UniProtKB/TrEMBL annotation, chain B:
Gene3D superfamilies (alphabetical): 3.10.20.30
CDD domains cross-referenced by the UniProt entry: Ubl_ThiS
InterPro entries: Beta-grasp_dom_sf, Mopterin_synth/thiamin_S_b, Thi_S, ThiS/MoaD-like
Organism annotation: Arthrobacter bambusae
Full protein name: Sulfur carrier protein
NCBIfam families per UniProt: thiS (TIGR01683)
Origin: domain of life: Bacteria
Length: 268, 78
């Protein structure tokens, strides 16, 4: 007999594997937008995340507490990003600094076209991916929801592709679910839905579309109750993953009764 | 000697190395391998005149008048 506890155990073996590293949680949290380190730590713990992104900036002696140390203390792996870079050259330099500072060759590659859209610049992104792969980095490429570009990045050696749901910080959800499905169907590296997530149902949808994981930050850190929202996303990602694996019913034009018509009582 | 550190003027003793600077700025004792002596992660990287100085080279890298140094660390970010 399958009991509730053996069911739970079987879902735990459904690990996300990236570059040979196993993660029990398929929720990757960004750390941006939190007003304090204490609040951030509590939200991260509530979300159950095992991998979080950080940005690289000038060291300030007046800053209290170390974000890196907080993550190390909580056993959360760090994924440095190249946020704020507009060129491949800047992104490569930032990745090199991150590798030295945080002792990881993983990098979330962000090469942004302009500050208004914060959309990836495809040309610089391709160039930077090539250069970083050459230098031995494991590149998590933040990309447009473009199936052609996603495949190109994978072929250049990206470790994971991370298509956006909507522009960074908009909370608009997944604007082109069809493209996300297409990216997933052709990828042989992990696909992480990144950016645009507004609330829990967006993350569940990403998983239902077949994404391997979801990355979000401000949806939690700027929620009115970040700890509760972190917990909501933990469940949303699990629910979406289970639903995808369970196999949904097909959509139909017309209604289909679930109660049998035969054997009804007859009334005058 | 006078250097630029993260865009601002900074004065150091003439025999300063990258280790001296990192130790001075972070208030941590840094060993010859570029790790903090207290065993906790120091979590910074150094670029000197736009070249990354590997942690293992901090002690052997002497600074010179007019050098431009950047010291960066992890901060909150998506």
């Amino acid at each position: 007999m399958t009991t509730a506890s053996t069911q739970a155990a079987s879902t735990r073996t459904d690990a996300l594997v990236i570059d040979g590293v196993e993660f029990g949680s398929r929720l990757i949290m960004g750390t941006g937008g939190a007003p304090s380190l204490d609040g951030l730590g509590a939200a991260l713990l509530a979300s159950g995340t095992e991998l979080t992104t950080v940005a690289m900036r000038r060291y300030s002696p007046t800053e209290t507490g170390s974000l890196f140390q907080l993550l190390v203390d909580h056993g959360i792996r760090v994924l440095p990003n190249t946020a704020g870079c507009f060129t491949a050259k800047d992104a490569v330099m930032t990745a090199e600094l991150a590798r030295e500072a945080l002792e990881t060759d993983w990098v979330k590659l962000e090469v942004i076209a302009d500050e208004q859209t914060l959309l990836p610049d495809a040309v610089e992104l391709v160039d930077a991916t090539e250069k970083l792969v050459d230098r031995g980095f494991k590149v998590f490429a933040y990309t447009n929801d473009d199936p052609v570009l996603a495949l190109r990045l994978e072929n250049l050696g990206a470790t994971a592709v991370m298509p956006l749901g909507a522009p960074i910080g908009t909370g608009l959800g997944i604007l082109n679910p069809h493209n996300i499905e297409l990216i997933v169907s052709r990828a042989s590296v992990p696909v992480v839905l990144d950016a645009g997530i507004g609330t829990a149902s967006d993350a569940a949808l990403a998983m239902e579309l077949g994404c391997d994981a979801v990355l979000l930050a401000t949806a939690v850190t700027r929620a009115q109750n970040p700890v509760q929202m972190g917990e909501a996303f933990k469940h949303a990602v699990i629910a979406g993953r289970l639903a995808k694996q369970a196999g949904r019913i097909p959509r139909r034009e017309h209604a289909l009764a679930s109660s049998a018509m035969e054997g009804r009582a007859e009334f005058l | 000697m006078n250097i630029k550190l993260n865009g601002a003027d900074h004065t150091l003793s003439d025999d300063a190395s990258v280790t001296t600077l990192v130790s001075h700025i972070t208030g941590r004792v840094v060993d010859s391998s570029g790790q903090a002596a207290d065993g906790r992660k120091i979590g910074v990287a150094v670029a000197r005149n736009s070249e990354v100085v590997p942690r293992s080279q901090w002690a052997a890298t002497a600074l010179a008048e007019g050098d431009e140094l950047e010291i960066v660390t992890a901060v909150q970010g998506g």
